[in-house]
Amino acid sequence: MRYAEITQRVAGLGSDKWAVHIEGKNRRAAGEKMIFLSIGEPDLPPAPAILDVAARQMKAGRTRYSSGQAEHNLLEVLARFYTKQTGRVIGEDQFLFLPGTQTALAVSFLAIIEPGDEVILFDPYYATYEAVVSAPGGKPVPVKLDPDNGFHLDLALLEKAITPKTKAILLNSPSNPTGAVFTAAEVAAIGALARKHDLWLVSDEVYATLVHEGHAFTSPFFDKTLEERVIVCSSISKSHALPGFRCGWIAASAEFCARVLPVSETLLFGSPAFLQDATAFALSHEFAETEKMRALYVARGRALLEGLSGSNRVSAHMPEGGMFVMVDVRKTGLSGEAFAFRLLREKGVVCMPGESFGAGGAGHLRVALTVDGDEMREAARAIAALAAGV
Ligand SMILES: Cc1ncc(COP(=O)(O)O)c(C=O)c1O
Description:
By secondary structure, the protein is of the alpha/beta class. Helix content is about 40%, strand content about 15%. It is built from 13 helices and 13 strands. About 50% of the residues are buried. The structure holds pyridoxal-5'-phosphate.
């Protein structure tokens, strides 16, 4: 049969990246003891009160077709949430509810990319970015972040990467995989370039609530003068440990949302109302679990660094936000991928190779902070021991 080109454009952009994780799962199924640090899935349970709202609302009949944009009660909450966050009035017409940040990203690029358009990605970047850009025919253009500068921005490199074909910049702060949080100055510099070259700024803010002490979350959406070109994509997957709910949204200009609503309706025809009720509840209350999660990621990051501290061949920095640490294994002479496979097969520790997140992740492992201190220290000692023996 004759298929459309989109099936080719995204073919193979997913599975290779997960080869280490998949082998780890197979080994565990065969009875081997493994420590999994490969997937960025919050391990703490969500706040029971949010689950109660979802269950109650489902039973109360909130199971009918919903508005394509979002339920009114959720739009009110989102408007209040972003008005508080940005310090200016954000209207209820500035949102689209979608199944997670992933769908928000995919819908955003469908709405702004023509075949051949270039999209700048900061490299290393989240594993699905190549696919969301490539699906509508866009060309990902990686701009390297310097590991020796904590994976922060090199403005000159960014400027050099912009061509007449550039349509958008995709940023993700706090970052998966790097753990970097872009400073207000970095975000302002990116915003200035977007304005100068008339670019969209797609801002993946799924880790916005996970910013560690000494760092502050800044979004380009905070700047009113950028509002027409900023598309924020976010969700409650990480902030409230509810990735399976698939509750996310776009926050953007009212014009963008009105233009893009028919695109998202074509795909979805609305989302479950009872889950929107749970999202509205989640975003309008404080939960001890959120702070506990943040504190836990910091403690686990410290445990990892402690376990690595004796090594002169591997190193890592505390993340500024998010739930990942990049471990630098370049001094071993192995690629991140070769190191990750040996770590899996010889030590039973499963990490993602840095290369799974672009060439900018070369010579690194991405460690997800999803196990507790003792196990994290054990994994770190295994990494240091392997590095010492290479
Ligand atoms: C940077 C980044 N963006 C998006 C996603 C997907 O999030 P969601 O569950 O909201 O679709 C993830 C999940 O790991 C992520 O790390």
